[in-house]
Write a structure and sequence with these properties.
Layout: E1 2-6, E2 10-15, E3 20-26, E4 47-48, E5 59-62, E6 65-68, E7 81-85, E8 89-95, H1 98-103, E9 108-117, E10 120-129, E11 135-137, E12 140-141, E13 144-146, E14 155-158, E15 164-169, E16 172-179, E17 187-189, E18 200-202, E19 209-213, E20 219-224, E21 230-234, E22 241-247, E23 267-269, E24 274-282
């Protein structure tokens, strides 16, 4: 089932499956979110939990026990409960159960709230440790923004520069950093070559604001994510979308075989405590 919020400027639709944003339209009906065409990528804007990306060789370890895992975690494939539907906000909840505890041995509640305010959507995450021991997890965003007509002529404007990124190998991060090539105007021009080796991964809190510009130089969407330590930019060759992905943690380094708690980007949460994070998607109006 899908739920909708609407104001004078935007209409937002969120599916209970994965608590995933599936549509964000301007008042004139123009769509900002990728359609989810399975020929390229069958999702729209999944929330990544309890991990971002992959564990090395799709395995992680807790207290000496090894667990198998799937890319980006299981939350994106689970049905959430709607716990609040206000005029301007939706809140969804996912709680651990016997099936999640077999795959990931930590009790939790994940709350995801979408709030419409003027020309923006604010996305809030709250992770609650409902167990009796410290929990270790990752969480991140993966919104895909529609590029009508394909990537040609579109660009990403990045507030910070210079920037450096890392590449992936089988979904895990390689050690070497590469400088990000921008135009003299500070733009990253989009093309399929950028994504031939999967996503670009940015460590060190380098990106806190990114805008998608159309071929005329107008801003289609602006993503603000202050305080996020990691970021991904990704697309599929031939596809007419780009993902701007603020992450609170990230995929494993290539070769990492330590305990989950030893992972350099893992989030640690004490029993009874909560972790909160917010980012914003703004759709400027003409």
């Amino acid at each position: 089932m899908q739920y909708t919020l609407e104001n004078d400027l935007l209409t937002l639709s969120v599916d209970e499956n994965g608590a995933e944003m599936v549509s964000l339209k301007r008042a004139d009906g123009e769509e900002m979110i990728w359609s989810g065409d399975p020929a390229y990528w069958g999702r729209h804007a999944p929330v990544l939990f309890p991990q971002v990306g992959r564990h090395f060789k799709d395995r992680f370890r807790v207290n000496g026990k090894e667990y198998r895992s799937s890319q980006h975690g299981f939350a994106r494939d689970m049905k959430f409960d709607l716990v609040s539907h206000e005029d301007d906000s939706l809140t969804f909840s996912l709680c651990s159960d016997s099936s999640t505890l077999q795959a990931y041995p930590f009790p939790f509640e994940l709350l995801i709230t979408y709030t419409l305010k003027d020309d923006s959507v604010f996305i809030d995450w709250e992770v609650r440790n409902t167990g009796e021991e410290e929990m270790y997890f990752g969480i991140g965003a993966h919104p895909a923004f529609l590029l009508p007509g394909g990537k040609e002529g579109y660009a990403i404007r990045l507030k910070q520069e210079p920037l450096s990124y890392k590449r992936l190998s089988n979904g895990c991060v390689l050690k070497e950093s590469h400088p990000l090539a921008l135009t003299k105007e500070g733009l990253l021009m989009l093309n399929d070559t950028l994504f031939e080796n999967d996503a670009l991964v940015f460590d060190g809190g380098q990106i806190e604001e990114a805008a998608v510009l159309d071929p005329e130089g107008k801003t289609r969407v602006l993503v603000k994510s202050e305080g996020f330590p990691y970021y991904g930019i990704w697309s599929v060759p031939g596809a007419s979308f780009v993902c701007l992905e603020p992450w609170a943690s990230r995929t494993d380094n290539v070769g990492f075989t330590g305990e989950l708690k030893e992972k350099d980007s893992v989030i640690t949460l004490k029993a009874g405590n909560s972790f909160n994070k917010q980012y914003q998607i703004q759709v400027p109006q003409d």
